[in-house]
Amino acid sequence: MKVRVASAGTGKTSALVRRYLELIASGTPLRRIAGVTFTHKAADELRVRVGLAIAEVLQNGRYQGYELLPKDRRAFEEAQRELPGAILSTIHSFMAHCLRLSAPLLHLDPDFVVLGEWEARALFEEEWKTLCYLARDPAHPFYGRDLEAWEEPLLYLFGRRSLAETFEPAQGEANAEFLEVYKAVYGAYQARLGAALLPLAELEQKALELVRHPGALERVQERVKVLLVDEYQDVNPLQGAFFGALRRAGLAVEVVGDPKQSIYAFRNADVEVFRQALQEGERLPPLQKTYRHSRVLVRFLNRLTQHLAEQGRGFGPEEAPPVEGVRPEQGRLEVHWVVGERPLEALRAYEAWVLAERLRALSVEVPFSQMAVLVRAYGSVPFLERAFQTTGVPYVLLQGRGYYERVEVRDLYHALKAALDPRGLSLAAFLRSPFGQPEEGGLRPLTLSEVEGLLRSSDPLQALGQRFPSIHRRLLRIGEEIRNRAPLEALQFLLRAPLIGGRAYQDFLEPRARENVDALLFYFAPRPPVSLEGLLERLEHLSHQADAGDVPQSGEGVQVLTVHRAKGLEWRLVAVFDLGRGLDRREAPLYLGGRDLQGERLVQRLALPETPLFEEYKARARRLEEEESLRLFYVAASRARDVLVLTGSVNPTRRVEGWAGVLEEMGLGHQSRPYDQSSFCLRTWPFQEVELEPPPAPPKRPSPSPWAERRFGFEPFPPIFSPSAYKRLEAEPLPLPDPAEGEEPLGGARAVGTLVHYAIGQNWHPGRPDEMANLEAQEVMFPYDPEEREAIMAEVRELLVRYHALLGEALPWPRDEDYAEFAVALPIGSTIWQGVIDRLYRVGERWYLEDYKTDHELQPERYHFQLGLYLEAVRRAWGLEPEVRLVYLRFGQVLTLDKSLLEAALKAIRP
């Protein structure tokens, strides 16, 4: 395995694209190169970049130092043709591609579906609840155990299953008992998945099965010759084991990444996978020229990485090579400290104001739209929002986390649940939401004491009707309405109906919250639940999907987002806010120890609280969290191109920790000498009370336009319709329907009708064997066995014989003009009617419009509307007056239809 370290801004993607060009020139077809990365966005970008590079090479003969040799042109032309089908995807998509190549060998359905993690968790929870229910039986092996107490550690371990193939208990009886339960639930969960469902972690485990199966591995080796992996610092242990096995099998694997940017432990990424590759693989020269950073920022980042690497905090020296800047711009670094013996909450409020004022001053050189403020956690955002609103700094809050736990989303959940069952927590939440505002005496929120009084009564619903009848009526109406509506319509009703003093729920929301609830409707629209219970269950499961973000705001202004969301992005000016915020010290329900190999399988041990190794594993986890926190600081600081502004709050009576502590160690702390020159500023701000204005009230809604309440009425027919579909609506189907007109087939009737009409349209004769053989080979015959096909063809030949017997007698032949299968489209009112005339032809000065029927009964009135439509279309388009006839092939009869009857049938449907 070839490994390359690429620091932030050093042109990692450009180097990867150049490697593609080198491989193509060396004779490796693009279809045999797989390029994989961490996100869909990065994979799409890589595909675009590779395509542009190939096009530039073919057009100009060069690309960023690569020179095209004449002998290689054909290889690049072939690569350009192969680009749409080339493997440039995420790691999981590549794994799925490999598994589909040999799915039956691995007992998989080739059309397996990849599930999201939240869906996998929901299935696991269902199996957990099922086990708890079954364990109530005295005959169950887990009877008598306090299973409910293990729910949190079970879900925690389930979320970490990409860290190892197998979990084993550390010392302690509780660990063994817990793992026994986990394996029982996980086994039921795997059985539930079957061969057709694969969540991401199970996809990884199946990929490891693949590389241990000689036949399946051979299929991958036939398809892929070179594997290029980007962002390798973000892979998890199972992914790393998969890539390592491919390398050992002889596949050329090249990886690139930056251990200093490994910040996704919450997604099970493990920087040790990259470090192992560095130790065992062929180390390529690191990329050491940064094309992103100004000169001042290059010096700062080199000093930061050197300081941390020397102490082995977050990364080592070999993972942090110094970089050289190529941009001539000087740039600027600012460090601002707010100091005071006050609670950090108060200090952060002033710190946000300081930052807002600095951004206002710097906006003379850098537009607000090219600035970003990065935070470690969204708990820091409210301070920024208030400061920006007070100082008039425009800002845009980018996607956060916890969308399905937003108040406006949970309001809708509890309103639905309370309307179905007005008891408990959901009723309390309903009463505290805008839905719970009484109309008596004007709309106002209920107080906590009023809600408590209602819930403590023996019959809360009756008490609600006595004390607040308007809320009671509202709740009953919601219950009545949603029971009579589809789930998606019920959501729309809750949002849009004027239920609260003549106002809708959405009228009580700020613009951002309205965007969120509108997004909820868009989420469910493509896949609406079949029942209200299903809707509630899905909303509850989605509330556990912590990585789901609320709707990003649009507009121009300073972008506010977390460091994790900023990964891979850059701005001219970046501010890192709240450097004094420490790590989240909440204790996990269990901790995992070191990972090792048992045979070929990755194994990791676990320890629950109060077991011998719990504290040791906990200390290890805390150390890893601290190291990742320092890498997160590097990622935040390296997002800036020209200007980096760092701000933090410090209480001198407390120990300085977190990122603020790192800067203090570097001589850039709050006690350092103040400095202010063109390229560097360090300043300490003694705490001051600043009055930050509350968020402005939403603007008053304008009066609706006069037409806003108008509704479009239902049209009698769809925008595009056919006479055969109309015939199905107006009458019972024929004993043997006419399949050429679209009725449901009965047995081989559809095949008979289709083949007869096709043969007539082609002027084929039943006495010509080659034409009949061609007819029998049509796709409509594929579902039938040989005996059925023989019977169908016998009937088709008989009908064609009768048709040809009519030619020259009842059906004129030869013809001067002849149009078979003549398509027509006729607009009538709001509907365009589409159909096909079987035959329209001219003999002398006379025109004929004919329709061929294979019916077993003579009932021409069934086709009056259809033929009236065709007659009208011919009249409008060509100004003709053809004779309209029905040709009943089974009876050998030709019936001429009265045009007045056709016109009457057509007139009956006109609007």
Describe this structure in words.
Helix content is 43%, strand content 16%. The protein is α/β, with parallel strands linked by helices and 911 residues long. An eight-stranded mixed beta sheet has the order 16-17-15-18-21-14-23-22.
Provide a brief overview of the structure.
With 911 residues, this protein is α/β, with parallel strands linked by helices. It has 31 helices and 29 strands. It folds into 5 domains: 193 residues, 3-Layer(aba) Sandwich (Rossmann fold); 82 residues; 213 residues, P-loop containing nucleotide triphosphate hydrolases (Rossmann fold), CATH 3.40.50.300; 140 residues, PCRA, domain 4 (Orthogonal Bundle), CATH 1.10.486; 188 residues, Lambda Exonuclease, Chain A, CATH 3.90.320.10.
Structural features:
29 strands; Rossmann fold; 31 helices; alpha/beta; globular; 6-stranded parallel β-sheet; 911 residues; 8-stranded mixed β-sheet; 16% strand
- Summed over residues and divided by their number, the pLDDT gives a mean of 89
Here the CATH topology of the largest domain equals: Rossmann fold
Strand content: 15-25%
Could you tell me how far the N terminus lies from the C terminus, measured between alpha carbons in angstroms?
73 Å
Q: Order of strands across the biggest sheet?
A: 16-17-15-18-21-14-23-22
Biggest pleated sheet? 8 strands, mixed
Tally of DSSP helical segments: 31
Structural class: alpha/beta
Low-confidence stretches: 545-554, 731-746
CATH superfamily of the largest domain: P-loop containing nucleotide triphosphate hydrolases
Tell me the count of domains. 5
Give me the count of strands.
Answer: 29
| Overall body shape | globular
CATH class group of the largest domain: Alpha Beta
